Amino acid sequence: RGPVPLRMRAVPLGVRHLLLLTEDRAEARRVEAARRDFVVNASHELKTPVGALALLGDAVAEAADDAEAVKRFAERIQVESQRLAALVRDILELSRVQSEGAFEAAEEVDVAAVVSEAVDRSRTTASARGITLESSGPAATVLGDHRMLVTAVRNLLDNAVTYSDPGTRVAVATSVDRQGGTVDIAVVDQGIGIPASAQARVFERFYRVDPARARDTGGTGLGLSIVKHVVADHGGEVTLWSEPGHGSTFTIHLPLPPALERGATTTDPEG
Ligand code: ADP
């Protein structure tokens, strides 16, 4: 007789096991509900540009002889397709960072390289809007995924630039908090700020403080959810300080790699 399949064996379950199983099931149900919500919300968000494109297509067909009108509709088609492309990009990015094991193996990541890549990518948009970008801080290393961290810092920078006025500054300041055991990347702007009542909600998927303004600026409402997930995947957290009318500071706190913490103690002359 071959081995008895596991599920057919009479495995005595202790109360603890049972509780764990119930918790697992509750967690699985929560995850499933969140996934369903996401699909519903994402479909709803996608319907807006898709619907607009369909109407604009009809409008172009009807205005065929009116070159001016065709041009106007064509411009709106460009805007709506860019919006659709941004939504698809962010939905894919979010579902990637939400899935377990978003990156296979953590590698040593040079934080200064992450920041300079993110700053370089945001520079054109910033200068087009008359905003100065700066970065500062000591060399630091964390464990994780370079590309995902660039995406996170870049999303914070894009927001800082989008929600700031021309002539202001956006700064990325890196620092090492040895006591707290973290490497901190702060993105500081002097922009419109976020009302206290909205601060807890900005990390929710598709949440926007001012939906009309966000639509004009091409926001998808997913940027900060992506940041939150990337940072959580790295064992860190994101904090927010903001004062309406004065600006916002989003700070990514990443764990200092254990080897570096040890290194810091051995080079300490007192220690
Ligand atoms: P979006 O693509 O709309 O920018 P996010 O998830 O990145 O989506 O941000 C959610 C909302 O939080 C934004 O719509 C905006 O209202 C607000 N927000 C994010 N970053 C900033 C900032 N630096 N200054 C002011 N408001 C911000």
TrEMBL record:
GO terms for molecular function: ATP binding; phosphoprotein phosphatase activity; phosphorelay sensor kinase activity. It is found in: Cell membrane. Signal peptide: none annotated. GO terms for cellular component: plasma membrane. Its EC number is 2.7.13.3. It comes from the Bacteria. This is Sensor-like histidine kinase SenX3. It comes from Actinotalea fermentans. The lineage of its organism: Bacteria, Bacillati, Actinomycetota, Actinomycetes, Micrococcales. The chain holds residues 113 to 383 of 385 of the full protein.
